[in-house]
Amino acid sequence: MGKTILIVDDSSSMRQVVKITLKQAGYEVLEACDGKDALEKLSGQRVHLVISDVNMPNMDGITFVRELKKNPAYRFVPVIMLTTEGSDEKKKAGQDAGAKAWVVKPFQPQQLLGAVTKLLM
């Protein structure tokens, strides 16, 4: 059984690109369109890693990570923020919320997989 990764992004084309990258590397993939959707999908389901966008409707990525970390079942799940946001301010907010890595779009598949591999070790 491979490891499961949740992708949270309001862009279906971006989810598709990330999903293909991860599936080719042998990961199982779950998808959510925003933070609210992600929290609903995570009701007790085991995930090993989360990749989340920052700017999304309903619930943005930083708020989502904060909410995720409040749940004891997901407190230690590593989160990668995958976003067009590169400002130090946003990165710090992401880190404070509990994100472990920050990958800026457009991303190189190898760069993303490198971050994933490192966090899943």
Concise structural overview:
With 121 residues, this protein is α/β, with parallel strands linked by helices. It is built from 5 helices and 5 strands; from the N terminus they run βαβαβαβαβα.
H and E string: EHEHEHEHEH
Quickly give the CATH architecture: 3-Layer(aba) Sandwich
User: Would you count the extended β strands for me?
Assistant: 5
**Beta fraction of the residues?**
15-25%
How far apart, in Å, are the first and last alpha carbons? 16 Å
What is this structure's SSE topology?
Blueprint: E1 4-8, H1 12-24, E2 28-32, H2 35-41, E3 49-52, H3 61-70, E4 79-83, H4 88-97, E5 101-104, H5 109-120
Parallel strand pairs: 1-2, 1-3, 3-4, 4-5
